[in-house]
Every structure is written in structure tokens, then in C-alpha cells.
Amino acid sequence: MDLEDDTSVLTTLKSFNSFISHTEAPQRLSEGSAGSGNLQSQYKRSMELLEAGERVHSNNRYLQLDEEKKQMELSHKRARYELEKVASDSARDLEHEVDRNQDLLGRLKKFQERETEAAKNLSEQVEANRALRKNMEGLNRKLEERDTRLNTANQTISSLKDDIRELTQRIQNQDSTTSSQTLENQELQEQKHQEVSQLCQSLQAAQSSCSEHIVKIKELERRLALQEQDIAIVKTVKSEVAKVPNLEKDLKRLREDNAFLRKPEDLSREVIHIQQREIALKEQNYTLSSRVRSAERSQNEHRAELCQQRSKTLEEQKKRETQDSLVRRLQKRVLLLTKERDGMRAILESYDSELAPTEYSPQLNKRLREAEDILQKTQSHNVEMEAQLTKSQEETGTLKLQLQTVELELESLKKHQASAADSNTSGTKEELNILRQKIEDLESERQRLEEQNNILEMRLERHILQEDQLLLTRGLEPLGCTPTALQNNMFSSQDLRKRLFIKISVLQIAGHQKEKSLRYNLHLDSSMVPFIALGTEGDYDPIKTRVLHFKMNPTTVAKQQRQQDIDALREEVTRLSELVRSLQEGGAMVQGDSSINASLSLPPSKEVVDLRKQMESLELRNQRLKEVFQRKIQEFRTVCYVLTGYQIDITTENQYRLTSVYAEQMDDSLLFKKEEIESQGQLIKTYSQLTVNLLTTERWRERKECMEEG
Amino acid sequence: MTSTLNGITLKGSAELVADFFSFGINSILYQRGIYPPETFSRVTHYDMSLQLTTDPKLKNYLTNVVSQLKEWLFECTVQKFVLVITCLETNEVLERWQFDIDCDKSAKESSAPREKSIKIIQDEIRSVIRQITATVTFLPLLETPCAFDLLVYTDKDLLVPDKWEASGPQIIDQSEEVRLRSFTTSIHKVNSMVAYKRTDSV
Fold it and tell me: B149–A553: do the CB atoms touch at under 8 Å?
């Protein structure tokens, strides 16, 4: 529109200008015409001008109005457009609002539904709440009941704790009493030990005296033997003496027989001799008889002494045995008491350790009762065993007494036997047989009793071991000794043929040996073989256990590997030290020594490496050149041979062979020798040339002929 | 197999104890770093995850020892089972894991199985192995290269098999001892303890 306005303005301007020019032109034209009509013309002109001006004004106004109209229209359009926009916007907004309304309505409905649901849930939850509250009340009631029960239980626990405290106090009291008892026992034991030691000393003194007596007895026995020998000698002498009257008779007879044969002097001499012999024999006889009487007297005296000594030794043996048995019994009682004390202590300790976490009172009571029952049983059993032992010992004592009486009887019988030597043997023999049988019976009884004794002792030891095992199962350390029941039954069966007094002496020796064995048992009981206590880490009883491990175990393998590594490292170290030494000494001479070079493990320097690389490359190049040259020369030679028809080979140094293609046979060739002299060479050269030419021309001709023919 | 029956027989008990030793030794070797951890693989046993070695030589050695131990457990001739850890440089014993075995010999005579739930036994074993794992917290570090050995304390009159030989007890000089839990199959009772060399406080 502006353009239109412009153009309208421009058109008006142009029209105005054109008008003006048009008016000017006529003005110019009209200048020459009338001077009179100037005023009219001027007036006309002015009126025309005014009209033109008015026309222009009206045009202008028209144009302005046009413009305004256009602008109005434009503004109208704009306003309409805007209105329409606004209307559309408002319509859209309305639609939006409608949609929103609908959405909101829908949401409202949903919320209302949710509300109703929530209200339902609420009601349900309220009901559930009520039910839960009821449950809670019930549970609270139960809790209260449980609390009351807990309280009662706690009360019972406290009461039980009090009971336990009382029990522990009682146990402590018992402990104290047991400790006091042990102290008393120890004192008693010490006293007994002292008494026993005194007894032992006295026994040892008695033993020494016994040994002395035994020695004396042996001497007496030796003397007895000697005397018996003497008696035998005496008997032989007596027999000889008895034979003497016979001999005298024989002598007389012989004398009477020989009266006439011999001379009186010889006879007298013989008679004198015989008389002398008679006298000597008689003297011997007297001496022997006196000796026999003295020997018999000494024998009797010795026998009396023997009896006394034997009785003394028997008494002392009896005393010792009783004391030994007493000592043993006391020691066993001490052992039992100490074991009881240890068992109680261990039980207490186990109770103390188990006191805190779990229920302990019924267990405690049970264990106490069980332990007491076991103790009572073992004690009763021990008492029984001890009673049996005492019975058996008493029986052995009585048997020994019987033995002694029998021995005394035997001795008396022997005396009788000795006095009434040769006669009345049959009666005494019967008595001797009876006595022998008695002795054998007594011996067998004694053996049986000894076996019983040993069996009882074994049972006692087994019982002690069982007690130890029971204590072990309760986790306690036993203090049981493991005495081996040595049964040195060194009684041998006796020989019936030996004389009675030897039998008795053997019996006595056996009795002594038995005492020794019993004493050894006593010592063993008292020594209490040390038992390496289990429980400390790693310790073990080498008598019963053995430690084993696998031969190829990881530790040995690792150690071997380590050793091997160490050896290898040492070898390397020595080798390297040798190398270093050699390098220090040799320096440049290292390369000549191949042995060291072989083991040279020094890192090569850069120059060496570069040189080596160069060398390799040169060698490669050389190789390649060789190959290439060979190929090329072969090619060249073949080409020469083909083109020229001649092949030149080098047979040996400075000798060359020329072969032609056209040769009739393969072996046809020309040999040339190269010499240093030039002239000669030239000769050769010219000669060869000539021949070559000759040959070639000839062959060429032949070929040509062949070709022409063919 | 004892898992199908309700009771424990001597053979089943021996197997249980041998299994425990097998896994226990592996655990100890892993925890104490005797062998590098990458040579162990994780397995599930006793309702817990345990480490088992994959080194073939070590596996072979352990199977040999455990199989022989199973026989001895069946015969009730074994008293203790000890794992000894030795320092290779100084040949000193640094640690000693000792398992005391009490065998009820009456089970040898009577073949009637004993009433004990396997689950309870496994629970007990699990607690012992957990304790072994927990001991790592207070045991001193093994800084030097170490090797281990397995010792068995048996009765003196036992016939020594071919691949075994007698050994010393390899006791630690100046040791600290810690007693661990025990478990019992009602035929075999195993008490565990560990002894280690007392380290001088700095």
C-alpha cells in the first residue's frame, strides 16, 4: 500500500510537474502574444493554478483518504485477524478447558472410588486393629504369665545356686577334711616310713646276720660232708679192720704153710714187718675211731647250732613278712586315698569350668552320686580283696609254721637216723617216706597258695587300673602305677632221691627266694613307675606310642629342593668366580681359550653385536653373489657354446680344454696350456685362433651341405 | 554310607573323621599361606564353603596319608594326628596343630551302630573348622618360606607300612597353646589344639 501510496504521490507529482511544464510552455508561447491580455491571462493562469492547486489538494486529500481508508481496512483486517486468532485461541482454550474438565471429572470419580475403597480398607483395618489389640492383650497376658514363670524360675535358680554354694562349701569342707586327712596320712606315712626304715635296717641287720648264719651253715655243711667222707673212710677202715683178723688168719696159715719153705730170718723179718703193719693199722684205727667220735660230737654240736639258727631265721623272716605286708597295705591305702582326693578335685574342677553356661545342678548331683557309688564300690571291693589277701597270707603263714614243725621233726628223725646208723633202716625209711610225702603235700599247698596270692594281687592291680580308666573317662589324670606282677616262681620240683636234709635246705632257699620276690613286689608297688602325663603338648609315652610320618612328605621334598637349589647356586658361584678370575688374569687372551669361551656367558657389547650383524650380512651377500655368479656364468657359458659353437673348460690349473659342437666324438677336444711367457701365449692364441677358424669353416661347410641335401 | 542309616558304625565314623581331617588340613594350608591361594579352589562341604588344593602332588600326598589314617581309625590304633609347620631356612617348628583322637574300642567288638545324628556331627565339625579359620586373627604371621608335615601317633606294636617311617614328635620350644573345640561321632572323639612359637614382644 505504501508503494501504491508512493506511486500515487509520485504520479501526482509527475502530473503536477507535467502540468507546470505544460503551463510554462504555453506561458512561453503566450509571452510573445499579448501584453494586454496579460492580466486576464495572469488571472486565468492564477485561477487555473488555483484550481490545479485545489485539484492537487483534493487529490492529495483523496489520496490521503485513500491511504487512510486502506489503513483502516488494513487495521480492520488486522483487527479481524487478531479477533479470529483470539477467537480460535479462546476456542482452543475452551476445548482445553473442556478436556481438563473432563479429566478432572474422571479423576474426581477415581478419587471418589479410591475414597470409598480407602474407607472400606480403613474399616477393615480398624477391625483388624481391634482383632490385633485383642491378640495383643492375649499375648500380653501370656507374657505376664511367662514373666511370672521366669520369675519363679529365677527364684528356683537362685535357690539352686544357693544350694550349689552350700554344696561347694560342703565340698570345700570335705576338701579341707580330706587335706587334713591326707596330711595326717602323710604324717602317719612318714612315721610308718620311719618305722619301716628302722625295720628295714633291723631287717637288713638280721639279713646280714642271716647271711652270716647261712655262711656258717654252709661251713658246717661242708664240715658235715667232710665228716661223712671221714665216716665213709672210717667205715672202709673198719671193714678193712674187720678184714684184718681174716688176714691174720690167712697170714698164720701162710706162715704155717711157708714155715718150711722160708728161712727163719726172713720169716722173722716178715713177721716184724707184719707186726709193724699191724701196729700201724691199729694206730690208724685208734686215730680214726677217735676222729670219728670227735667228728660225731662236733656234728651233733653243729646240728644243734643249725637248729637254733634256723629257728631264728624263721622268726626273723616271719617278722619281716608281716612288716612287709603291713607296709604294702598302708601304701595301698595311701594310694587309694590320694586317688579319691584327686578324683574329687578333678570333679570339682570340671564343675567349676562348667558352672557358667548351662544347667548344672542336676548334672552335679548325678555326677556326685555316681562318683560316690563308684567310690563305695571300689572301696568295698578293695576291702574284700585285702581281706582275701590277709587270709591267703595267714594261710601261707600257717603253712610255713607247719613246714617248720615238719622240718624240726625231720631233723630229729635225722638225729635218730645218725645215731642208729646201720640198723633199723626199714622203720626209718617208712617214716622218711611218710615225711617226704608230707613235705611234698606241703610244698604243693604252698605253691597253690602262692598262686592264689599272685592272682589276688593281679586282681587288685586290675581293679586299680579300672579305677584309673573310670577316672580317665571323666577326663581326670590317673595316678595309677603300673606295677608288673613279677612272679618269680623259682621253685623247682625236687628230687626224691636226694637226702632229706638237702631237701630241707632247698626248701629253705626257696623260701628265701620267695621272700626276695615279695620284697621286690613291694619295692615295685612303692616305687610307682613314672607315667609321662598326657595332656601337655606333644609328649607321649615311648613305651606305648610311636610317631610316624610319610617318607616323601612336603617338608623333606622342600628341604631337598632347597638343598639342590643351594648346590646349584654354589656351583654357579664357583664357576662365576673362576670366570672372573680368569678374565682378570687373561683379559684379551680369553678368546684363545676355547674352554672358557664355551662357558662365556658375559653379555656381548654393542660393537660386537654390530660387527656380528655386519658379518652376517656380508656373508649373506657373499652367498647371494656366489649364487648369482654361478647362475650367470652358467648362462654365459651356455650362450657362448650355443652361439660360438665352442665350449671352454678348465681342467686343471692353467690348462684349458676346448670342445666344439661339431665334434664327431664327445672326447674330441683341444687342450691349451697357459704359460707366463707372453710370446708363447700369443703363439697359443694365434694357433688356437687358426685352428678355430679352420674348424669352424670346415664345419660350417659340412652343415651347409647337410642342409642342402636335407 | 552312613548318611542313609540312622546310626554311626565304626567304619562310618572313621570316614567322617578322615573327611574332617582332609578338609581341615586344606583349610589350615590355605589360611596359613603355606601354598599360594591361587592353587586352591572353592568347594562346598558341611554346608559351608571350604578351600581345597588343586596341586596334584599335594593332593596325592594328602590322599595317601588320609587313606592310611582311615585304616588306622578303623583299627582304633591312632592316638594323635599332628600337622607341623617348619621354617625352611632355620628348620625350626613354628606351628603345631594337634588333634587328639579318643577311640571307643568297644565299638570294635560290637557291630551295632550308635545313635547320633549326622547333622549334629556335621554341625560340630563346622564349628571346629570355623574356629580354625578364626585362629588366623591371633596366630603370628609366617613370613619365611615354610613347609608342612603330617605326623601320626600310633600304638607301639603297630606294623609300619612301607611308605611310612618313624619320626620325632617335633615339639615347639617355648610355645603358646590354644585349645579349640572338639567333636565326637560317639565312637571317635577328636580334640583340637594349636601351639605356636612364642614371638618375642618388641
Answer: yes
